[in-house]
Amino acid sequence: MNAPVTEAELQAWVDGQLPPARRTAVDAYLAQHPAEAARLHAYREQNATLRTLFDPLLDAALPPALASPPLAAPARPGPAASDLPRPPHTPPSLPAGGAGPHSRQAPPWPALRLAAMLALTLAGGAAGWWLHDVTAPAASPALQAASALPGRAAVAHAVYTPEVRHPVEVGADQQAHLVAWLSKRLGAPLRPPQLGTLGWELEGGRLLPGQSGPVAQLMYRDAGGARLTLYVSTEQPLNRDTGFRFAQEGEVGVFYWIDGKFGYALSGTLDKAALAALANAVYAQLEQPGA
Amino acid sequence: MLADSQRLLDCIPRLRRYARALLGAGADADDLVQETVARGWDKLSSWRQDSDMRAWLFGIMHNLHADNLRRARPVEVELDEALPAPDGDAAAGRLALRDMDAALRQLPPEQREVLLLVALEEMRYEDVAAVLQIPPGTVMSRLSRGRERLRLLMEGQPLPSPLKVIK
Q: ipTM of this complex > 0.90?
């Protein structure tokens, strides 16, 4: 009780972090030192001003850099997923958060976007592509992996297309390196389709974790800055070809097809016809890599 | 697993508020949030169940921010120059909120981080030390110096300098 009051204790007094046993001593000190009391009250005022200034951010809408991703609407299960057994968990109903003493209503936008991604992934039949070690629930794993393709592709699209600093790991300016690197890591040759004549330039590519190995994401950009991604997986266990299929995942349209062990998914926020034209061009180039 | 994802979602508004306070207006703050969320999402499976998700995410953000600062010091200078210095009128009355924002920009980044984690996040000092990976004593000295500097800036008083004796 008689120990001298320290500066650290005065700071703790400002923040309500002073141990109760020291409260009396600090209060007595402040009563005798009005200048110190004024200083500490100014600090409390700072805390209040900072919260007044920045708390609106907790409820604010996202700026375009973050808001441009396509999953504004809550996810609907894609058509391919609807006829499959549901995973044990239903998509989350998002209870209001309650993490800390001052937690507030979650703002609609960022939470919704990620919630949409989460729901998408669940609807896609897999537990989440970012959780590498999760085992697939019930049902045939092969069926699930195939039907998960558009969902996974849409999630990857939503996560990386708004990236400003690091949209890709290897840029298209290092095309030879990009081809060699992706091919080596995928364990299969991959030549990025060229879509320049359709107005989409290759921006680069990145590797993502898949169910049992890496998958590749190639990113394209048009003159207006919109982005298109081609998701390439080499782990299609059904190992049979399919025709084009289309899935609408939130606002992301996905054309996907399976070619042997390869699964391809082309994702973008384009209308279906425009996306189909691009998917045809991609398909044609992949079929005839020499052309 | 679902609960973990939900916890991460719940933290995003706080990450955003903190990043904006730390970096000022402009796209940098949301870039930092974006990077932090992507990184957290990637590493979610390595998050320890019994630890504090919020502290873990703020730690990720701190490391990314520190990397960015090392890479791009000049940006910090530009931001400071773009802001009006407190003038004589500023001391006259109650300062507008935007003056607080401007004054905040004039704190050294390491003091700003500590102050914001304490004032906005209401983090306990020991958690601030863990997030920033600094000793508890350093948290207290940065907090004390940052607050005093901010107070002088807000009152329009000259800042203490070792080269000049004030009155």
A: no
